[in-house]
Each structure stands twice: as structure tokens, then as C-alpha cells.
Amino acid sequence: MVPAINLGPLVLPTAPFLLIIGAWLCLSLPERSARWLDLDPETMSGLVASGLIVGIIGARLTFVALYWSAYQNNLLGIIWPINSGFSPLGGAFFAAAAMFFYGRHKQMALAPTLDALTPVLIVGLIFVSLADFFGGPGFGTATQMPWGISQFGIRRHPVQLYEIGVGLLALLVWWILRNRRDFDGQLFLASTAVYCFGRLFLDTYRANAWLSTSGWHFLQILCLLTTVACLVLLARGSRRLSKSTS
Q: Model pTM?
């Protein structure tokens, strides 16, 4: 849609700019969410910062490893230019590993930590969708609906905006439940279930969805399994609570 913003002689790539803003928000949110849930703000901020830094480095190194033939004769290209390629899956793996070991080192309880991390993760996903909408390669399937947007001369579903709407709904669920949660982990499970359930249907409208050779949507399968797992864990938590209060 808008791959770059022209500011006089300066040309600012839209997607990296939005991702930087998203990263800044993700670094700002942990202290607030920790205070809302009576957790240590400094420890939570350190957890997110370590995951973000290691995730970015891991995403870059994973991309370099996958396309090593393009870098083996140009080692400087590994670190410059830094916007030439990242692997989202590799970044997510390294970020999760860094946060896991950081949490173990600080002896952070898993369930309340996930509750506090939920708005950070959702805001991050919202900005990924926003960057994808303005400057990324993602686009929706063809539609005749009046809210469709024109891309490459074809009217398409604004699937990234749908994703942003689901993310905002998941944030709303987290916000409503934060002062009335019944057990630790409930905020994470409920918000994740809402987000994944929404993405389960929205991926149908992605024209560049990850598909298997037989036509299965990988993201839909992952979202379905995650939604079911969250609902099962929510039901178990509710049953344990009812038993303890009876």
C-alpha cells in the first residue's frame, strides 16, 4: 500500500518504521502490565528486552544460515545492511528460548508471567499486521465487498486490518478480565483463545497463506490446536477453582 514515506530528501521504509514503533511499545508495556498484576516491573521489562534483542539477532542469523550461499563471499553482508532479511520463525524460536532461560534464572512463576506478557505479545502481532498492510508482501483474496482495498489492480480483502481487529478484541478481553481473573494464567489463555480463534477464520482470506502440498493451511491448523488447548486449560482451571471453593 505505502511501502515508503517521503520526507523531503529522506525516504523512510514504512514496514521497518512501524516495526520499530511496535518494538518500542513492546518494551514500554511490560512495566505497566506487571504493575496491574502486582508483579515486579523491572524483572518483566528485562524478560521482554532479552527476548526482543535475542529474537532480532536470531531472526537475522537464521536467515543468513538459510541463504548462506549469498553471504559466504560477503561476510560483511551478514551485519549490513540490516534490513535485507530476517526469519520470523527463527526469531520467535530464539526469543522464546531467551525468555525461558531468563525466567528460570529470575525464578519467575510461569502462569502470572504469561498473563503479564499477553498484551505485549498481542501488541507486537498487531504491529506486524500493520507493517504487513502498509509495506509488506501480504495481501488478501479477491472480493467485491465495499470495504475491499485495491492491490495490483485487484480488489482484495484487507486481511491485515481484520487481524488488527482480532488483536484489539483480544486486548479488550485481557483488559476486562485483569481485575476479575479467577486463577493465574486465565488472562493468557482467554486472550490467546480469542486471538487464535479469530485468526483461524481470517487466514482463509489470505492469498499468500502457508499451505501444505495437499492444501492445508498451516496457520489455521496451529490456531485450531492452540484454541482447543487454551479452552481445555481454562476448563481445568475453572474446575480446580470450583473444587477448592466447595
A: 0.89
